[in-house]
Amino acid sequence: xxxxxxxxxxxxxxxxxxxxxxxxxVLVVTQPDQYNTKKREKIFSPVKEWALENxxxxxxxxxxxxxxxKILDTEADLIITAAYGQIIGERVLNHPKYKSxxxxxxxxxxxxxxxxxxRALINGDKxxxxxxxxxxxxxxxxxxxxxxxxxxEDSDNQDVLFKKLSILASxxxxxxxxxLEKGSLxxxxxxxxxxxxxxxxxxxxxxxxxxxxAINVFNRxxxxxxxxxxxxxxxxxxxxxxxxxxSKRNHHEEVGRIIAIDKDSFDISCADNxxxxxxxxxxxxxxxxxxxxxxxxxxxxxxxxxxKVGEIL
Length: 313
Description:
Blueprint: E1 2-7, H1 13-22, E2 24-29, E3 34-36, E4 41-43, H2 46-53, E5 58-59, H3 69-72, E6 78-82, H4 90-93, E7 100-104, H5 116-122, E8 127-134, E9 144-151, H6 158-182, H7 203-206, H8 214-224, E10 230-234, E11 237-246, E12 258-261, E13 266-269, E14 275-282, E15 289-290, H9 291-295, H10 299-302
Helix pairs in contact: 1-6, 5-8
């Protein structure tokens, strides 16, 4: 089958690799290059890097709702999207023989939108999954072709869950393509009464609020790790947090205070007499560091029992 693949991040690469082993990728569509001002160099998306390595033609429109003629000029049986990152118009969606399908990281109709994996973790969900569905004019609202569930482990963070779901999608996609070609798939409409949304993360989402219990803080930290990372503030410095655990300590302190400093972590008081143990952080303009190394360095002066954290700059 001749396939146009549309995707951008690392999540999409294993899926594209699997498809390419059995089908002809006639065009890869991905987001425009970014530019690193410090290094003065372009940054290609992971999907573009794969395409260049595998000698596939690449198309990178700034706005695909406006610049899409290249797709219409490319003969294709199917368009497959996986975390592409732009809204696609109906002319493009209806271009191929078998229309267009999308690979989405949630159990639709739950978590339509751009951050379903992150929101599932932040909300403390116990399961998620992959939905493959027809693309429609309305965001993530197309009829479902196949769905598979995946348990969310307490040890999962955003990075781990993205990888697990990418592997799951890779295992599903070829059967869906075969089913479309054979006409054996039955598309199921989504239940509009059960729709929820997972909007893209904002700067406000990144701020860690200790006025909630430690489980909620833990879920937010792992839902944001490692991109963009949650943060709180000590001494007017933004401290990014990438790893934590719920502390076994109970307390009767004001929330948002350092209540313990151990060899590998420090504890911050949260609501409901709970506490969170911080394990891995990043200071401004520094590399990520384990807290045990931070405590043996700059943290000796910065971390103090009963010190208030989380103050706004």
